[in-house]
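To whoever picks this up:

The nightly regression suite flagged DUF4013 domain-containing protein as changed. Nothing in the input moved, so I suspect the structure step. Input below, exactly as stored in the fixture:
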Amino acid sequence: MSQSNPYAPSTHLPVCDLQIRKVKVRPLDLLKRGYRMLGDQYWLFLGITIVGMIVGSAVPFGLILGPMLVGIYGCYAARERGETVEFAQLFRGFDSFKESFIAYLVVLAAAMVVMIPVMIAMFVIVILPIASSAAQNGGNGGPPPGFPIAILAFYPVIIILNIVIAIPFLFAFQLIADRNMRGIDAVKASVQGALKNLFGITWYMVVLTFISLILVCMCYVPVFFFFPVSFGAIFLLYRDIFPNPGSMQSFAPEN
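Regenerated output under the current build:
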């Protein structure tokens, strides 16, 4: 007698059945709510987020990052429902492997479309002048005077582009974890939610990136302790935009 997987999604919610709201985004309030959401399971979520990101990044091109993100956000959804989360729930994202993989491929394709021209520009502007200078001086020439400035100028450009790439797909994996949506439908709904709240989400991502950069500059380690809060804040932002009547009101935004 065959047994069905109790964690496998049975139905997929269509985009047309989703309620998508325009909300007021307050970054610091989101982070406070994200921390409050963790309660006495902060250390468990620290392990879940760190292991999830390490495992998801272990495969070339991050090809299993999608299922790991679904697993991470599935843990936050369970926490929101008032359940006691267990570490093993992280790997339930693989129950939605196909849909999360499809969503990740869309994100990866968008990232390549944006980043490849930037890498080509960096090669033309920075690398070629160095090679040309070295060739003209018999291999003994140093970098051109503007080389350090050119390198530094590309860092904020790359950071800004990463934010631009992330915003449209910010909620795709939450939608798969929380609503059992198909990968393409989750991407479409995420884009709709992001466009409806574009200014607020952009402001939140700028604040989150700024805080993360400060923590990275503090010997990198503190940023790992920020993972559970930042993931929680993004999940709650998702919940604000894609409401669920059954969600716990203790994590609702303050008026």
